[in-house]
Design goal:
This protein is an alpha/beta fold. The chain is 38% helix and 27% strand. The protein has eleven helices and twelve strands. Strands 6-9-10-3-11-12 form a six-stranded mixed β-sheet, sandwiched between helices. Strands 2-1-4-5 form a four-stranded antiparallel β-sheet. Helix 6 links the parallel strand 9 (164-168) and strand 10 (195-199). The longest helix is centred in the C-terminal third of the chain and has 16 residues, at 176-191. The chain starts with a strand and ends with a helix.
Length: 274
Amino acid sequence: MEYLRVEDLHVNVEGKEILRGVNLVVNEGETLALFGPNGHGKSTLFLAIMGHPSYVVTSGKIYFKGVDITEMTTSERSKLGLFLGMQAPVEVPGVVNSDFLRAAVNARRDKPISTVEFYRKLNAAIEEVKMTFDLATRGLNEGFSGGEKKRNEILQMVLLDPEFIMLDEIDSGLDVDAITIISECIKHEQEKGKTLFVISHYARLFEQIKPTRAVVMINGQVVLEGGPELVEKIDDEGYEFIRKDYGINIDKIEDETPMNQVSIGACAVKENAK
């Protein structure tokens, strides 16, 4: 069943058009991998779907379970079951992590969760993500390492139990053991039938979570869709084949690696991901 539909979506950020007519369907229960060179709109797409106010939809529509969510607030979209694990989680001094997590849980409930039930769920989630409990008592992401911030995003995912999960490079900067832990959490969501939309530069993550389908974004548009074999092709060849095989010019991004060198393996440093 169709879960998310993006129709001819155009998005501006600070007056610059980043998405230039994205058309995409994500089906219920699938794990969709999103690829593309850096700077070509992947994160912008996720933030637009989630309703970030700085990402201005100038035309097009976003539908979730048949409902037009284009004009909804981020909070409203979250209550419908959407979740975004951020690429670069921000530090929020003065806000205790556990207080934030409890407020996020309550925002999705008709009746506030009891203290006993919340800490039971929090303890179980911390155990699943293999974090230490002291991180829940500190300021939100304050003083966290990069890996701790990413695990804290996964902790939110586990606690909120969303229907549609977007993960934006949730594994970047992590060592192999941490990637394995996050992969196990993702696989648990897959086993529950959740729908996932994942950006990653790590071949190892996709080897473990086994996406059912893959799409490629170039120049702010979805230009190619395929099965799991597309993941391997990008890892082996980078994105140069898109220019050669499909005649699609790839806009130059400042400091961009040549397209025949950009692959999920190269970005992940394969030697450390085996």
